[in-house]
Specification:
This protein has 4 helices and 2 strands. With about 140 residues, it is mostly helical.
Length: about 140
Amino acid sequence: MSTVAPAKGEDRYFPHWKLKTGGVIMPEERLPWPQTIVSGLQHGVAMAGGTIIAPLIMGFDPNVALLFSGVGTLIFFLVVGGRVPSYLGSSFAFVAVVIAASAYSGQGPNPHLDVALGGIVAAGVLYGIIALSLSNWAWAGSSA
């Protein structure tokens, strides 16, 4: 079931990105390829800090964080039909809690990761419930 309606006069789920060379770039527009490549490289450097450093601080494997950040981003991209540019990465919100719950010393893999994972999963479920309730509330408000 699609939650994002196609743009006016458009019968496909994903937009047809139009080339724009200057000014404000809207979601249905794109940069020329040289600027897209430079922007992508800049984005890769910016996202690497959070996606690699946060797991290292908590004793997680950063490769797993990168994999699931990519999977989450692709799922998000498909759900919104490519209309919302976003990257879903690691969060520093859990660093203090994971270190406190697992008594992690900051060296190598976290040996007590199982202690912290229960809290992380519970927080994820709570975030999911909040997201669903807010999206239902937003959709109900937009139809009024």
